[in-house]
Design goal:
275 residues; mainly alpha; MetI-like fold; 0% strand; globular
């Protein structure tokens, strides 16, 4: 019973807040251009849905492209950080410093050098998604049982096999945690890039609505941004379940054990074949 209440509590709080918001706007007769009621925002969302979906398609495309690039770079940098301590000492402070600079400050610079196309928006997404992925992945690579490494080395495993069999599987849960954060950031990054210079996308729609004091459209756009962010997070969760079915109940150690068992079986088969 308590578990159900704990799950329902956030939903009940949201309902109470929306109800209070609705009644406050109605009773105080607050104009639409100052603060729309939730019912007005939802009505506009339904009315503008075809337009919002068209703009959302552009934003999602930029978010996916940026997140894919950030993922590829983060995996490469994460492995280098783990494999080369000197590289970590050189690059890690730079990564931390870059996170202190707001992306919205860099976005206009990207537009100056890269124009008004998709490139500056995708680069904005890359910068927002890269850091949580690379930090989570590199931390996951470093947090593992040394006994597994020693076992692979004892049986003549190469450095490539160490990463393939032990390190990368052991870092998968950490990597997925970083991907969940990055998935949420990806939509925000694309919208921020579209604020600065765009002719389509949710950021462009949001700025147009804001400049026209059409706050019902602004809230409708915010609503679809929230929905898309949650959907991106859900896609990463589904990806995790699909790629790592064994971790649902048993965790990383079981996943590593599966890979080590396969590795040892291959060694035994090779020795028996040689005999």
């Amino acid at each position: 019973m308590m578990k159900r209440l704990n799950k329902l509590a956030p939903i009940l709080v949201i309902i109470v807040l929306l109800t209070a918001w609705e009644f406050t706007v109605k009773i105080a007769h607050i104009p639409l251009y100052v603060l729309p009621a939730p019912s007005a925002a939802i009505g506009t969302f339904v009315q503008e849905f075809p337009t919002l979906i068209r703009h959302a398609g552009i934003t999602v495309m930029e978010a996916l492209a940026g997140m894919g690039i950030a993922f590829a770079i983060a995996i490469a940098i994460g492995i280098l950080i783990d494999a080369m301590p000197t590289f970590k000492k050189c690059i890690y402070p730079i990564l931390v410093v870059t996170q202190t600079v707001p992306v919205i400050v860099l976005a206009p610079i990207f537009v100056i050098y890269m124009g008004f196309g998709y490139a500056p928006k995708i680069l904005t997404v890359v910068l927002m998604c890269f850091f949580p992925i690379v930090v989570s992945f590199s931390d996951g690579l470093g947090q593992m049982d040394k006994e597994y490494l020693n076992l692979i080395r004892t049986y003549g495993g190469s450095k490539f096999q160490l990463y393939k069999i032990v390190k990368i599987p052991s870092a998968m849960i950490s990597l997925l945690s970083g991907l969940k954060v990055a998935a949420t950031y990806s939509i925000s990054g694309a919208v921020v890039g579209e604020w600065i210079a765009a002719q389509s996308g949710l950021g462009y729609y949001l700025i147009r609505a804001k400049n026209g004091y059409m706050l019902d459209k602004v809230f409708a756009c915010v609503l679809i941004i929230i929905i898309l962010s949650l959907m991106m997070n859900g896609v990463v969760k589904l990806f995790g379940y699909a790629m790592l079915p064994s971790q649902r109940k048993k965790g990383n150690k079981n996943l590593v054990s599966v890979h080590i068992t396969k590795f040892l079986n291959n060694i035994y088969k090779r020795k028996n074949y040689e005999k």
